[in-house]
Amino acid sequence: MATFVYSRQRISMLQSPFCETNSANKLAPFSYTGVAVNSSGLGASQVLHMGVKSSKLASGCYGRGLSGKTRGGVDSCWTKVYGRRAQERVLEEEAPQTSEAPGPFKLFPGQAFPLGVSEVDNGINFAVFSQNATAVTLCLSLPSSGKVGTSDDGMIELGLDPRENKTGDIWHICIEGLPRRSVLYGYRMDGPRNWRDGHRFDSNIMLIDPYAKLVEGRRIFGDSSQKLSKFMGTYDFDSLPFDWGDDIKLPNIPEKDLVIYEMNVRAFTADESSGLDVNTRGSYLGVIEKIPHLLELGVNAVELLPVFEFDEFEFQRCRNPRDHMINTWGYSTINFFSPMSRYASSGGGPVNASQEFKEMVKALHNSGIEVILDVVYNHTNEADDEHPNTTSFRGIDNKVYYMLDLNNGGRLLNFSGCGNTLNCNHPVVMELILDSLRHWVTEYHVDGFRFDLASVLCRGTDGSPLSAPPLIRAIAKDATLSRCKIIAEPWDCGGLYLVGGFPNWDRWAEWNGKYRDDMRRFIKGDAGMKGIFATRVSGSADLYKVNKRKPYHSINFVIAHDGFTLYDLVSYNFKHNDANGEGGNDGCNDNYSWNCGAEGETDDANIKALRSRQMKNFHLALMVSQGTPMMMMGDEYGHTRYGNNNSYGHDTGINNFQWRQLDERRKSHFRFFSEAIKFRKTHSVFRHEDFLKKGDVKWHEDNWDNPESKFLAFTLHGENGGDIYLAFNAHDYFVKVSIPPPPQNRSWYRVVDTNLFSPDDFISEGVSGIGSTYKIAPYSSILLEAKPAA
């Protein structure tokens, strides 16, 4: 049975045998094609002659139709538009019986730039790129009865004439008389249908403008009653400019001084334990409410998991092993310019989401916290050719936007592991990415970006690695982005591993995956790791001491969103991903974890104490390492995902911050983590601008070549005798170590001993009475500070 998805009125700017002007400058009768969509997604067309007619909605999934009469009339005259003569057409519509008429409109050819929707002198301009499309139709849904996002009048469709509405490869039209906000719009495109040549045109599919600044979809995150909501672009030219304040001061924190907190906007406050109103939980405003927690912890930058518009129900489009899951991480971008609309409070929609995102950034900045966005330019939500999810790029110009294997039937290349790979170094796609980044900096005042699977951005249009990728260079050299932190995840799913070798122009920092692996292996007691542990703690000079690169170009981390949490790292030897529906085949197998004697939860007090020590050891090592430290949300209280190391699809307590657990551990685990961060921030010895020189560090070691040695001690020499002594014991036995003499007129004070219970495990002012030796417990570490003698 055919099901109308929406009713629509079609007004074509193409002259046709059915639309000819008579001597009275009135339209002769013309035909209208109304399309119903059946269960297979194919169009069932009906031709309605002698005028335009609306259809009643037979069975509504996404909207509702309205029975009514419309009458079209076009007056023609010649006018000067954008420096050239163009034919002006006026469309007048008779009001449907239940709402006011949306016209009259005046249609102009429009202009090619800027891409997207813009307000110009004589109306609203629409411009979209497609090199290979042969037919483009702009679809408009007007607001009715003051209700945002609804249209009782059906869909107005405007076919664009390539003779009037196309400049180069850009299709455009300008409409006078449109509302200045709340109009929903999209495109239908047609073109070559040969998949072997890389084309995926389908004129039945409504497509989102790649340059849409706002996207309207369902309003409430995870609202299953709106699971199949249609996503469309929208705009807002009515709202006043956001008030950033009279004296805008961005934090501009030097990279060497950053302490990054990786977090998920929704998961941070979605749990009822957050204590927030149900309409604020999981929102941008929810983050604002919890800024005091970030300040108490001591971090000064948040790295937000993807906040570009994505569809959390994408796994439920068809039957598959993951169709019970909800995408909570967001690594499946629909549009690169629009903030995630369902992170607005109270289901406020895209306009409110934009406003509240800015409020969040402003509040974080006013608290001295920078905002870094995790951005996904390596692939989109449109999946692969076996299970395509065409929403935008694929239907607009697949051959341009995606990497293809034209020698293998035009199939999509997949270096992202997600079915498609964005063609990042194609000039058009590169400019899209640059425009998107500039938009987030100028419109939303963000401070930097972490690029997911950034090695994809280093591939040419055929997928081959490039030594000097144009996009990577352009980002590094762009004037608008010059104040931003730019961080690469320097690998992809095609095996292009570039840790330490990412093209950088002395600007790019990197997620140091080798730091993560080497730190895990040493702390858990693997043999032969002492030397490389020393290299990682001292800034990974083996990777980054090249040209003008600095220690802070190494983003040091032990834990990130994908993989085990810190608690799970010391509690599980194996991943436990059965809840993901893929039989445990997903997620990384090489976790370098150790459960400390029991798999998962246990009541054994000794195992629990050992796990606590190990978490403190990891955190201390991270905070005393040269480079830029990053920790993950929830590790400050010991969050567990119960061994799931790939929890992207769980909108539950598996991912959500547990505020009651934080309160329970505030005086112990959290206190240690907070004190360690603050100690780093107040001691420049951990934050060298340049790589350590011989006089900066003393290694108390003469056993480098012994692979069974799992103990390392060293002194960092601070200014004016403010030395720091550190020792890490990864043996399963006590080590009695000789403590070197402190600098003149100084004494050693114990600040940290991870073997002690709180509050003795971290005393920032230090405990005096340290002798010439210290007995360091198994799997523990100490930090001593040389302070003026009492």
TrEMBL record:
Catalyses which reaction(s): Hydrolysis of (1->6)-alpha-D-glucosidic branch linkages in glycogen, amylopectin and their beta-limit dextrins
Record EC number: 3.2.1.68
Signal sequence, renumbered to the chain: none
Ranges where the Glycosyl hydrolase family 13 catalytic domain occurs: 262-666
GO CC field: chloroplast
Example of a GO MF term: isoamylase activity
InterPro entries: GH (IPR017853), GH13_cat_dom (IPR006047), GlgX_Isoamylase_N_E_set (IPR044505), Glyco_hydro_13_N (IPR004193), Glyco_hydro_b (IPR013780), Ig-like_fold (IPR013783), Ig_E-set (IPR014756), ISOA1-3-like_C (IPR048650)
Broad class of the protein's primary localization: plastid
Keyword entries, A-Z: Chloroplast, Hydrolase, Plastid, Transit peptide
One of the protein's GO biological processes: carbohydrate metabolic process
Localisation per UniProt entry: Plastid, Chloroplast
Origin superkingdom: Eukaryota
Pfam family membership, one: Alpha-amylase
Similarity comment: Belongs to the glycosyl hydrolase 13 family.
Protein name per its UniProtKB record: isoamylase
